[in-house]
Amino acid sequence: MIYILKFGASLLMPPGIFILIFLAMGIWLWRKREKKAAAIIGAVTVVFYLLSTFWISGLLIGSLENKYSMPHSLAGDCIVMLGGGALSGTPSLAGEGTLSGAAGSRMALVAQLYKQTGLPVIVSGGQVYDDSGNEAHIALRELVLLGVPEEKILIEDQSLNTRQNALYTCKIIRDQGWSKPILVTSAFHMDRSVLNFAQEGMEVIPAPADFRTNRPQRFNVNRLRPNADALSDSVIFMQEKLRGVVTRYLGY
Question: Which domains does the chain have, with CATH numbers?
C-alpha cells in the first residue's frame, strides 16, 4: 500500500503533474482529430516521462559512473579534490558557508584518503557565482575540522569550471614536484575530469565519490514513478556528454 501511495503522490508533484497535463492535452487533441499534433505531444510526453524515472536516469547516469571504481592502489603523490558547488552565508561549526551535497561527498572521501595515505591535499574551485561561496576556502576549513592538518592542504581558489580546475591544479602539482595525483570528484563527472587533466599532460588515479545510482541496477516498479531527482540525473547525463564533446574537440 505504501508504494501505491508513493506512486500516486509522485503524479501530483512536478514533473508528474506536467506529464498528466501533457497526456490530457494529447487526448483532447486526438478527440478533436488533430492527430498530428496529438502524436507530437504524445511522443514528447513519453520521452519526458521516461527521463523522469529512475529506471532510465539510472541507466544513463550509471553508464558514466560505471567507468570507474575505487583504485586498487593509492600510489600517488597528492590528492586533488575538485569543487562541486558551495553556498554562502549558511551556518557551519566554524564560520559561514557550506559545500553542496556533491562536494560534501567528495570531501568525505578526501578525508578518508588522507587518513590512509597521509598525502598532501589540493582543493580546487573558486567562487563561481556572485552569490555562491568560495569552494576551496570552505573545503579547507571543513577538511581541517575532519582532521586533515591545515599545513597539508593547498588551495586553488580561482577556477570556475573543470577545464580551469585541471589547468590551475596541474601548475600547482608541477610546482611542487609531484606527478601522480589521486583525483577525487563525482563519479558521473570523473570521465570528463580525467580527459581535462590528460589534456594538460597529467595522468591521474581516479577515485570517484558521490555516486547517484545503485550498482548493479535492479528494476522495481518504484523506479517507474516520475521524480524530479531522476529528471535532474538525466539532465546531468546530457550535460556531461555535451561538455565532454566540447572538451574533446574544442579543448575547453
Answer: 2-65+223-229+236-250 (no CATH), 78-209 (3.40.50.620)
